[in-house]
Amino acid sequence: MSRLLAFLLLSRFAAGARILAESDSKLPMSLSTVISDLEAEDIKALGTACFLTSRSVSKAKKAEIFGLEDLTTTAFGTDSGLCMALSPISIPEVASTAAACGGNVLFYASEEDLLRGEGLFDTLGPAMERILSGDFGSTSSLFVVADDPVSAKAKLEEAASGVLSNLVSPKKKVALLGDVFAKVEYVKNVEEAMALCETTNEPAVEQATIASAVAADFWQTTPVAIEPSMSSKDLAAARHLGPAARKALENAISTVSTMSKDKVVPNFGDLCDAATQRAMEELDEVSSPMLTASKTGKQIRENLKHDIAAAIDELCQEQLGMSQVACFDEFKQELSKLRISPNLASDMQNVVTKSVASFASKTKNMPISNANAKTAFKAQLKEFCAERLEAAQASGQFKPLPRKGVTIGLHWLLPKPFGNDFRQEPWMVHATDNLVYVPPDKITDVNPEDVASGDWRSKIVPCPSGNEMLYMQ
């Protein structure tokens, strides 16, 4: 574009609209700042658009087109209510900003890029891919600015045919720009393009659209950091699989929540496994092997499994609580069948053991561990039994069995030569000297007279070893 044409564009733009607010913060949130400023200027009807250019258009040229002196400006608003986002820097910002603008794109293509058919879709391609993944209905629009609109249309559509066929799209086939945008217009200057942009929405509506786009794309790109070194495959996976994973998550949680609401599901673990499997299948149905095999695609799949497990955890706690209540009711019914007898305590303990085993069996396939719930349930049953036993005993209906007597037996063993283990009586020992047994403590438990008389049977004596026996005169 020549200097004269640029000057004419500036003159027309200046005559048709006046810039009231500018922002240099990061897109797409800078649009929100501009909208707030325009709202303060008492502008009630607003519209948003994302300004993109082909590769060879410099940053200075972009600012010159709109008559901006500050090259750091990322968004501005006019007195007509149009909020324009200026050429986001990174690919994720391009996609998010296009979504925040409701799919409205103002595209400026240089003659050099149109002639060579190169560099036209560096930013327009990601924007179209994000628009295809969103639900913009009839609101999306593309305004192409070129010196010769007729020639630019033929060249751009021809270059777009190869690009559109490779875009990741939920639609079966995308062959033309009209398949992406609800409205496509080719104009000669920026002023005409801006005049075609609709400014009919309330500020609150535009603010909500921007916030929704920011939240959605933030979820897509975490925890994987978007860096300039990321491949286009990873970027496409983040833009396309993110919303699909979020929808699959919502469907899985809704299914489990609906089928387990206010009732105990016998095979709740199987239900959760089936819902998780179905969510992964939904993600695979809208994906492709190329995107699924990418680093970002794998991360999104793992995030989906983790998010489903985290969301199901609360439902599992509810199921454990309801299962505990149901098993406790069964336990009380079993207790009511018991006969009050002296064996009531042991009978109740048997019922406790069976009830705890039944609760553990019903909850063993839960996605979360049932160990804590099992321990709490067992403690609850024991406390209940203790209270019932005390009440029955206080009323006189229950009397525990008396304790059995304890029998204590005392036995002794006299070693040689004092006892029967040598098959002889002590007084039958033939020795020339008197035998005297002196234990280590020097206390004679059995004197020689008792041994000789045979009264040792009424005594309890230790069992010394051979070296503790002394034979003395």
Structural description of this entry:
This protein has 16 helices and 7 strands. With 473 residues, it is α/β, with parallel strands linked by helices. The protein folds into 4 domains: 3-219, Rossmann fold, CATH 3.40.50; 224-317; 322-394, no CATH class; 420-468, no CATH class. The chain has a 7-stranded mixed beta sheet, sandwiched between helices. Strand 3 and strand 4 form a beta hairpin. Helix 2 (29-40) packs antiparallel against helix 9, helix 10 (232-259) packs parallel to helix 13 and helix 14 runs antiparallel to helix 15 (371-394). The chain is elongated. Residues 1-16 form the signal peptide. Keywords: Signal.
Lay out the secondary structure.
Blueprint: H1 3-16, E1 19-23, H2 29-40, E2 47-53, H3 59-65, E3 75-78, E4 82-86, H4 91-100, E5 104-108, H5 111-116, H6 124-133, E6 141-145, H7 149-164, E7 183-187, H8 190-196, H9 203-220, H10 232-259, H11 268-285, H12 289-292, H13 295-336, H14 344-362, H15 371-394, H16 448-453
Parallel strand pairs: 2-4, 2-5, 5-6, 6-7
Antiparallel strand pairs: 1-3, 3-4
Query: Which regions are unreliable across 5 or more consecutive residues at pLDDT < 50?
Result: 1-15, 219-229, 419-424, 460-473
The SSE order reads: HEHEHEEHEHHEHEHHHHHHHHH
Total beta-strand segments? 7
Tell me about the biggest sheet? 7 strands, mixed
Helix residue percentage:
40-55%
Query: CATH class of the largest domain, anyone?
Result: Alpha Beta
Q: Taking Cα atoms only, what radius of gyration do you get, to the nearest Å?
A: 45 Å
Average of pLDDT: 76
The coarse overall form would be: elongated
In which order are the strands of the major sheet placed? 1-3-4-2-5-6-7
Structural class: alpha/beta
Percentage of residues in strands: 5-15%
CATH architectural group of the largest domain: 3-Layer(aba) Sandwich
At CATH level 3, the topology of the largest domain is Rossmann fold
Domain count: the total is 4
Number of helices: 16
Keywords: Signal
Signal peptide: 1-16
